[in-house]
Amino acid sequence: MVSPLFALHSYAIHGKNVQIEETVTSRVGAYGVKPRQLVAPLYEDYWLYAAVEPTTGDAFWWELPRLDAECFTIFLHQFGQQYPESLNIVFLDQAPAHVAQRVVVPDNIVLVWLPPYSPELNPVERLWEDLKYRIDVQNPSLRTNLPVFREHIASIIRGYTAEAITSLTGYSYLVEAAYAL
Questions:
Q1: Has residue 1 been placed in a domain?
Q2: Which domain does 72 fall in, by range?
Q3: CB burial of residue 64 (10 Å; 0-12, 13-18, 19+)
Q4: CB contact at 8 A, 98 and 79
Q5: Is 156 part of any domain?
């Protein structure tokens, strides 16, 4: 349980699927015949979870294999352990993994649901857009090698400063709405 003297922090949480995909570009066939073949997509992926505090730029990142109730519970547990001395108000969307009855929320975390279909209200979405912009999509090794791709993403994340995160996520109307609750 959180002690009576605690800090109050508000965070926005969201998970993002990160994947590499190999595509088949051509098939050889007889002259004048377009070959047809059903091809299953070849991709590897993982989920990158993030919690950001828009006013300070504090961020907590965690990689997990899926976005489901089990993995979301693991993320919340790790997040709660990272900030054990504060009550953490968390704003998030109503994705099925977030609202599942199997989700176990630590005592020092309070979940606040954003309205459905309103990603523009979640500050962390702006961070995802910036992260996607920084990925070097022209590098062929990133498109075919998941460990290399993961390290590339990790290097981008390590490069974010608190000031940069605040600049991306700390829009006044979002912060004022959070503190109005």
A1: no
A2: 7-180
A3: middle
A4: no
A5: yes
From CA 80, how far away is CA 82, in angstroms rounded? 5
Q: Which two tokens stand for residue 109?
A: 């975390």
Tens of pLDDT along the chain (181 residues) come to 333 333 446 676 667 777 766 555 555 556 666 666 655 556 778 889 999 998 899 999 999 998 999 999 999 999 999 999 999 988 889 989 989 999 999 999 999 888 888 888 888 889 999 998 998 877 877 777 888 888 999 999 999 999 999 999 887 876 676 666 6
Q: Are 64 and 50 in contact (CB under 8 A)?
A: no
> Could you tell me which residues come within 8 angstroms of residue 106 by beta carbon, excluding any fewer than 6 positions away?
76, 77, 79, 80, 81
Assess if residue 102 is contained within a domain: yes
Asked whether residue 2 is assigned to any structural domain, the reply reads no
26 Cβ partners below 8 Å, 6+ apart? Answer: none
Query: Quick one: CA dihedral 107, 76, 95, 10, positive or negative?
Result: positive
Instruction: Give the 3-state secondary structure of residue 44.
Output: strand
Amino acid at 159: G
Specify which residues 45 forms β-bridges with: 19
Q: How many domains does the chain contain in total?
A: 1
Give pTM, 2 decimals: 0.80
CATH assignment at residue 164: 3.30.420.10
